[in-house]
Structure to design on (1079 residues):
């Protein structure tokens, strides 16, 4: 597969390490009342869609960017590639 | 031996005679021959034995789809099994042997299987060897594996190199027949970056196998002209002997180029084969078509071949399997075989055509509406029995049959992304359907367009269309005129009869087997395949799948497309494991990482151990030491009594800088870092988000906004990856940057009561490292040896007064030598990873054995370190009830009551009395060593509720070795529990 890195252009998937669902960016608030349940859901519950999937890839053999790749799991078509940092910022991660 | 079956003409170089051997016998062929063409020219039809019945077999085809003529090439370390004689390019000194026979190809003992064919039908494995059960593994399976089979592996190392490479192009053209060459010419002239690859050593496809493919010139002449033009273009890479074996995601193709298989040996340092990864923007599939056989009784005798192959042998290689050849067909195309053979003086006694309305052919009799119903000849065909339209039978003497049941587009590469072929009723074959891999365009016979005219035009049009997608304007190349008459065909799959008629030659699947599968309700195509083993051999059913599908369709009364289709997966043809391995073999299988002072350690005679990719000194044997324990005990004692030096360069080092560096460390470590003073170091524990501890190390604060983090050697990559995840995905607004500096710094532990004195000789005098000025857990940037920048950390893994000193990597070797020289007066000793391990167990420090992916901070006795006052990775879930029970495992020390008893790591602990079973398990030993200081075996163990059980006696059980030892639970801190030494 080829991943269109926002900074570096097309790179072979071999240069990347795969993590999983991009929902891992949305880490719950540790002080919330239901924190234990929220962290349980965050860590263990995932959708497994046949189709579009937003997922995290780490450019380990490259510039060390974490990317959010939107990929169709049926065709492997890559629809969108974003810097995870931009996605996290847009999601309002204040830390 | 005379080449009695060599004809006139052909594309062989008669000035270059080549000597070769087959089964030890010497023959002669010519440059341009394959093993199969040369053997046929020499009158040899018998080239192999079938997989199951050990039936005598000759080549069926003239290409890579060959099911029968599998041979072992070369010998010794270069031996290669199961290669098709039809693609093995001849060279002088070539040698090959037949396989799956004993003692010889002519007299094969296992041919007895053929007599028992009634017992060896489809599914016989599942039916015959059911009882007794124990016989399967010991008796049946070994016998079957020995009897059924392919070639053998040599067991010797392959002396040759294999390489890997990467190529990029606008247009990849797969196949260099009329369609492929027309595409290449069109794209090449348009200036696009083009790769044209063909599995054959001579390009041209059917253009060099047919006599009248082009109207006004010989096919070969146009091919030569075209290849010359392509070779002159800087933007076209022509790759013969290159099989594109797989179509992968996003236009990536796998290909193997046989650089030296046509040479007696590769030139020095040159690869035998190269595995290419080709990144293409578009690809033209111009892979042609594969002819299919007709099933009739005993249609597998040597001499029964495909019509197009017989024609190819005659036209390209000037070879014929026999001087008398009967043609058997359901289409006009095979009639050309008769005409070409007769033109070269081969007798064609008859054309047996299943169609009542078949056209006539001058010079031979066309038996219309006739079928071949049987054949004779033990080791090679001698005659066929023909049933004519009026029902009479008649025997015709012949040495070969050229048969044709029509052609199947060679569409393997179009299926590699789950594209499903669709049935085409005009040609009675599957053609590529929807769902082609991205960027693929199919052209010519591969698309089901079987005329030369259509192939040429289709290839050029495909190139124009592909380049237009890329914004490159191309004009279809001028192409030679060719015949444009579609070939008439009436479907005909098998001759009805009671005896065996082969569909899949390589796996010995007959029409009877398909009938049996139908009878036993294995009618779905995937069931049929698995029940009969149809299409599962090295040829992947290239000649057999559609025929068997047709027979099943007939039995179920459904149409062929309703019955199903077969799709293909990579690889298109077998690829040697060596090619996939490339240069990554032996010690090059993975990189070896050496620390800067490796050479010094070698000079000391160090014994090394692999830790990940690193080589680390395990211990340093001295003269007279005969057992590793002597060396390790000495290293421990000398370190604890005076001073020792250990190379700890392999630890992961991560530089953390930025205004928010402290806040960031607070997030990744379970314990707090916000208040760590500049010039101080702190132990840190990293958790996974599920609360399990996964790595530990230290973080040293060199400045307000600058920390140096160390990780364990094994987790250096993972910890860095996780830290980047936190930085980019969880804390994107933090002002913090990370970089791995593992390889930038060489680092040495200097441990023992004399370590300060030693270091004072190295550290430049302006830096005060007295206990007062540089206390325990201090850190700082200093200079050593008269101005060399260095970092000093007062940290201790051994429990001694100890430091770690880091210098830029290039000074590592000099640093080690300087330390040892300065240490001479203290009798300083270098110590390896074993002594390091002994001392950390004595001190009760956790390492990889304890941070084993199941243990929490609480288990490790570090529960109070997990801050509840701040957020960090893993803190919420580490507080889960189930992970915080009273009887949770706790890290303790264990000591045998009898000090000499060994403590094996991994042994389990049971109560002093009571049953020994999993239900009563009290824990397990994680690390064990002999402590030369305590003169006793010691161990670290996780024990249920262990913090409150000190002094209790447990039984250590090791059922594997029948050991049972009484041990006492003690503090994990065997040495200096109050930490006085390291603060001294």
């Amino acid at each position: 597969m080829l991943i269109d890195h926002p900074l570096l252009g097309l790179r072979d998937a071999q240069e990347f390490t795969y993590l999983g669902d991009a929902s891992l960016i949305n880490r719950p608030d540790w002080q919330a009342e239901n924190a234990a349940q929220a962290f349980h859901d965050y860590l263990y519950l995932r959708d497994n869609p046949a189709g579009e999937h937003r997922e995290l890839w780490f450019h380990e053999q490259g510039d060390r960017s974490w990317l959010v790749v939107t990929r169709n799991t049926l065709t492997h078509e890559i629809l969108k590639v974003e810097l995870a940092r931009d996605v996290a910022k847009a999601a309002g991660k204040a830390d | 031996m005379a080449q009695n079956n060599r004809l006139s003409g052909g594309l062989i170089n008669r000035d270059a005679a080549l000597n070769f051997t087959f089964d030890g016998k010497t023959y002669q062929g010519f440059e341009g021959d394959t093993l199969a063409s040369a053997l046929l020219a020499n009158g040899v039809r018998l080239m192999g034995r079938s997989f199951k019945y050990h039936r005598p077999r000759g080549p069926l085809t003239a290409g890579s789809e060959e099911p029968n003529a599998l041979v072992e090439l070369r010998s010794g370390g270069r031996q290669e099994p199961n290669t098709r004689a039809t693609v093995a390019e001849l060279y002088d000194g070539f040698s090959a042997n037949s396989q799956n026979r004993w003692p010889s190809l002519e007299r094969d003992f296992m041919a007895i299987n053929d007599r028992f064919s009634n017992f060896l039908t489809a599914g016989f494995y599942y039916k015959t060897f059911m009882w007794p059960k124990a016989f399967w593994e010991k008796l049946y399976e070994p016998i079957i594996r020995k009897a059924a089979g392919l070639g053998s592996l040599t067991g010797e190392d392959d002396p040759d190199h294999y390489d890997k490479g990467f190529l990029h192009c606008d247009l990849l053209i797969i196949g260099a027949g009329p369609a492929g060459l027309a595409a290449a010419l069109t794209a090449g002239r348009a200036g696009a970056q083009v790769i044209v690859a063909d599995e054959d050593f001579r390009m041209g496809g059917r253009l060099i196998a047919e006599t009248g493919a082009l109207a006004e010139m010989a096919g070969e002449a146009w091919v030569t002209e075209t290849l010359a033009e392509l070779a002159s273009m800087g933007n076209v890479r022509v790759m013969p002997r290159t099989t594109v074996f797989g179509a992968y995601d996003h236009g990536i193709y796998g290909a193997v180029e046989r650089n030296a298989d046509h040479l007696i040996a590769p030139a020095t340092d040159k690869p035998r084969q190269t595995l290419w990864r080709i990144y293409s923007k578009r690809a033209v599939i111009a892979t042609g078509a594969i002819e299919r056989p007709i099933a009739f009784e005993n249609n597998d005798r040597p001499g029964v071949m495909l019509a197009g192959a017989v024609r190819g042998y005659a036209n390209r290689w000037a070879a014929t399997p026999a001087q008398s050849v009967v043609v058997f067909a359901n289409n006009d195309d095979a009639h050309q075989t008769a005409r070409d053979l007769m033109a070269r003086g081969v007798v064609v006694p008859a054309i047996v055509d299943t169609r009542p309305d078949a056209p006539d052919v001058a010079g031979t009799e066309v038996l219309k509406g006739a079928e071949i119903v049987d054949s004779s000849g033990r080791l090679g065909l001698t005659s066929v029995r023909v049933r004519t339209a009026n029902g009479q039978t008649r025997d015709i003497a012949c040495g070969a049959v050229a048969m044709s049941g029509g052609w199947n587009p060679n569409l393997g590469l179009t299926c590699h992304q789950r594209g499903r072929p669709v049935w085409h009723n005009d040609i009675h074959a599957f053609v590529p359907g929807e769902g082609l891999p991205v960027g693929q365009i199919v052209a010519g016979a591969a698309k089901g367009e079987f005329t030369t005219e259509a192939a040429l035009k289709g290839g050029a049009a495909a190139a124009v269309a592909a380049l237009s997608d890329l914004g490159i304007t191309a004009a279809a190349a001028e192409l030679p005129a060719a015949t444009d008459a579609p070939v008439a065909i009436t479907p005909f799959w098998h001759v009805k009869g009671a005896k065996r008629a082969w569909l899949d030659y390589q796996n010995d699947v007959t029409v009877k087997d398909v009938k049996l599968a139908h009878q036993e309700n294995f009618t779905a195509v995937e069931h049929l395949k698995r029940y009969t083993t149809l299409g599962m051999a090295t040829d992947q059913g290239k000649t057999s799948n559609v025929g068997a599908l047709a027979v099943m369709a007939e039995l179920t009364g459904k149409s062929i497309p309703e019955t199903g289709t077969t799709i293909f997966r990579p690889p298109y043809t077998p690829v040697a494991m060596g090619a996939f391995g490339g240069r990554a073999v032996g010690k090059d299988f993975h990189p070896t990482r050496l620390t800067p002072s490796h050479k010094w350690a070698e000079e000391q005679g160090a014994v090394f151990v692999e830790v990940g990719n690193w080589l680390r000194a395990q211990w340093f044997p001295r003269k007279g030491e005969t057992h590793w324990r002597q060396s390790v005990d000495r290293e421990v004692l000398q370190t604890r009594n005076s001073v020792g030096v250990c190379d700890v360069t392999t630890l992961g080092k991560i530089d953390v800088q930025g205004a928010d560096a402290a806040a960031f460390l607070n997030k990744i470590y379970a314990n707090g870092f916000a208040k760590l003073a500049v010039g101080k170091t702190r132990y840190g524990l990293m958790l996974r988000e599920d609360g399990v501890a996964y790595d530990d190390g230290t973080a040293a604060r060199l400045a307000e906004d600058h920390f140096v983090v160390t990780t364990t050697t094994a987790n250096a990559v993972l910890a860095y990856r996780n830290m980047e995840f936190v930085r980019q995905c969880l804390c994107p607004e933090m002002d913090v940057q990370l970089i791995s500096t593992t390889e930038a710094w060489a680092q040495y532990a200097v441990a023992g009561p004399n370590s300060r004195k030693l270091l004072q000789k190295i550290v430049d005098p302006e830096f005060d490292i007295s206990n007062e000025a540089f206390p325990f857990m201090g850190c700082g940037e200093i200079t050593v040896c008269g101005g060399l920048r260095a970092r000093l950390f007062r940290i201790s893994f051994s429990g001694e007064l100890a430091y770690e000193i880091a210098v830029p990597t290039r000074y590592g070797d000099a640093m080690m030598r300087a330390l040892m020289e300065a240490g001479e007066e203290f009798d300083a000793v270098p110590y390896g990873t074993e002594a390091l391990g002994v001392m950390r167990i004595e001190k009760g420090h956790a390492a990889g054995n304890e941070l084993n992916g199941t243990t929490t901070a609480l288990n490790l006795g570090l529960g109070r370190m997990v801050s509840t006052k701040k957020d960090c990775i893993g803190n919420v879930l580490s507080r889960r009830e189930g992970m915080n029970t009273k009887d949770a495992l706790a890290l303790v020390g264990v000591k045998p009551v009898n000090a000499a008893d060994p403590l094996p790591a991994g042994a389990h602990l049971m109560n002093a009395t009571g049953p020994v079973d999993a239900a009563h398990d009290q824990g397990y030993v994680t690390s064990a060593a002999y402590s030369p200081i305590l003169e006793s075996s010691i161990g670290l163990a996780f024990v249920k509720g262990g913090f409150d059980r000190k002094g209790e006696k447990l039984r250590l059980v090791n059922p594997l070795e029948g050991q049972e030892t009484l041990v006492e639970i003690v503090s994990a801190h065997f040495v200096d529990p109050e930490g006085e030494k390291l603060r001294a």
Observations:
- Residues 36 and 64 of chain A are 31 Å apart (CA to CA).
- Helices of chain A lie at 35-44, 84-90.
- The mean pLDDT of chain A is 95.
